[in-house]
Amino acid sequence: TDVCQRWWKYMTDVMPANPDNSPVSSELQEVFYLP
């Protein structure tokens, strides 16, 4: 959304960002499993 894109641009100085200003993400390791 437009609001998210503006927020991402605003936060680029304190968080890693992709060229389009979206936050850099990575896969998380599964810690536990609930059946």
Automatic annotation (TrEMBL):
EC category name: isomerase
Stored InterPro entries: Dimeric_a/b-barrel, Rham/fucose_mutarotase
Keyword Isomerase: yes
The keyword Isomerase belongs to this UniProt entry's keyword annotation: yes
Enzyme Commission number(s): 5.1.3.32
GO molecular function per UniProt: L-rhamnose mutarotase activity
SUPFAM superfamilies: Dimeric alpha+beta barrel (SSF54909)
UniProt entry keywords in alphabetical sequence: Isomerase
Name of the featured protein: L-rhamnose mutarotase
Organism this protein belongs to: Escherichia coli
